[in-house]
Structure prediction request, 852 residues.
Amino acid sequence: MTSVQTLVERRERLLGPGNPLFYDDPVHLVRGEGVWLHDADNNRFLDCYNNVPCVGHCHPRVVKALCEQASQLNTHTRYLHENILDYAERLLAKFDASLDRVALACTGSEANDLALRIARVNSGGEGFICTNATYHGNTTAVAQLSSIFEPIGGYGEHIRMVRWPDSYRPIGGLAGDALADAYVDEIKAAIESLERSGLRLAGMIACPIFANEGLPDVPRGYMEKAIACVRDAGGLFIADEVQSGFGRTGQWWGHEQSGVVPDIVTLGKPMGAGHPISGVVARGALLDNYRRHEMYFNTFGGNPVSCAVALAVIDVIDDEDLVANAAAIGRYVLDGFTELQAKHELIGDVRGRGLFFGIELVNDRETREPAAERARTIVNAMRHKGVLMSKIGEHDNVLKLRPPLCFSRDNADFLLATLDEVLAAV
Amino acid sequence: MTSVQTLVERRERLLGPGNPLFYDDPVHLVRGEGVWLHDADNNRFLDCYNNVPCVGHCHPRVVKALCEQASQLNTHTRYLHENILDYAERLLAKFDASLDRVALACTGSEANDLALRIARVNSGGEGFICTNATYHGNTTAVAQLSSIFEPIGGYGEHIRMVRWPDSYRPIGGLAGDALADAYVDEIKAAIESLERSGLRLAGMIACPIFANEGLPDVPRGYMEKAIACVRDAGGLFIADEVQSGFGRTGQWWGHEQSGVVPDIVTLGKPMGAGHPISGVVARGALLDNYRRHEMYFNTFGGNPVSCAVALAVIDVIDDEDLVANAAAIGRYVLDGFTELQAKHELIGDVRGRGLFFGIELVNDRETREPAAERARTIVNAMRHKGVLMSKIGEHDNVLKLRPPLCFSRDNADFLLATLDEVLAAV
Prediction:
């Protein structure tokens, strides 16, 4: 087998340095099945990180749908084909009735880029609000809304960043309604700041569970008030469901938790379980009005193969009851993490929704000083004990876990036991 | 079978109006094989339009590579995998040695969006030049460089459009070197105009065969002089090979024709024969410097399945000698079109390179008045006689043909005979 070092050297030579790679000792994967990944040395890893293969790695029904359609026809949407229509129907049925149109693309970045333009056309504004610890994708326009990396040329004057609704380090030490209001005040201030610059608000984009920010327990009422505030200023609310969608949270969509219905929803990652497909779901009037102003055609977007795959993903989620599984196993895992918190001083906070977890590590529970270095140590130690996960958050100290939705109680027990061991050794 | 009307209505309801659809009587495709497409009523069409399935529809080797890898593993590039490295090696070997790094994405739009940023970082400028009759993709940033559709919010002050090197309606009635110089003067003027606005040039982006503009016979020396002029001003030249790449022109890359080597090359459409994969190939120093300034990670870009597919596409092109086929059959078809030109007054000009053809229709050969309406009639008539093609160009009067690269002499004879018939009846 090719050694890891050789592969790393080939990567540098062909792709250049600076291509992100997980772990101090990178993993060379060769096979995946369900929640398991296998490396070239026959080690097996429990995948507690990858949300993209949401139905499990290489799900036979998804692979079958892919192969059958790819053997038959793959074209673009300038010809008629049932697949895109069958898929659109199935997908839209999972949303509130007001969200009744879809446009398909290939990546979450493309979906968010398109959503920004839909918001611009329909609001007549150009200003956008995002949080101060997020990432929404990699196009030039979307990189402007990603506070984690500064974009080439710096931020435009049309961008305003607001504090994310941190529940563990609450703004002003507030709680309850007062805390939600304080975070919403940030949005109001951003809108006023845009107005002072002579810019009208086009919209706000946010992941409804603030996954990149660190998966906070969003203060009750925050989302409703935030959206109302954005709409009052003539803007649209874009829910970036690229991470939170397709059952991840134990509900179909992350925004369901808050009870509010966004104006525009963007979809990606798990949509095709690894096959490049993404989409924008919106109120018909918004998408139709956009299309009157700009022609949008995506050569690969909505092709028969992508739609066959994405349809199989919804079928599997439904038939295997994976949303309910995410909710049930998610609760079980969260309870387990809470027990670990009682045992290990390092765990400052445990948060989660469905099968998406954040474990916030602190050097001191009193000061809540982020334990970023130890988070890194733990992620690497878990990799060597056969569990793949990562870390995230404004302070880079939150263990990030998002296993495939078919994660079982046995898998959870293995994860919990391994993490317990690793925490004890740090 | 579902009627065309029902499908059109479902599209409007689910996707909204304004989704582009080919032909007055849209085609409902169900199956593809080689150069043939089949509709739901068992009609078969000779595909003279689709460059994406470059090796032919549903090529067994490409489908096999797709299915095998999809059954085994599909992840992202934060784990090590051979496929992306094997592919990068094969791909880069097709370029001049100076173009020695690749970044992979999913769509041509993403590739161009990334190329613009690579040019910005490395030039220190922000101004871009494109032609006045082109399209490079659909992200917010790339739409700025697409003169065919006006972008949301209008064009930025950093964009300058220059006249494309039209050979049939030459600027100032010039010819030869004087014509090339006149078009290059447009680029010089654009650079000066940017400077007057206090903007430095970042680069120029162009399809090396000016496919969207109408596939002109580019005046000899134009490309060399254009690139020199851009480089003299500190800018980079981006060759958008999304249409012209992968053997289409009878050479591997469209830019080979001119003998110049671009700084950055973008790839898309035929790269995965329909599977969503795209890329940016550049001089290592340019891509590496970009990566020092901005993290670029694409969840689906360069995944093992996409790379297996793209590798199979190169294998098939090589093993079936499709580049040579494109050159040989291309010449045969072009000769046939030239014979049709002698016979049909409507054909003002015939142009082509490999298996990419433009037939310019005019109402009057003297005045060269564009015959856009008759171009439309012919495209629709050909569809009813079993040949799929389209039209393009600044005046929308150029018949556009780009069949799969496995197009045969028999296919060519069928195309030529059908076009002869249709032209006689217009």
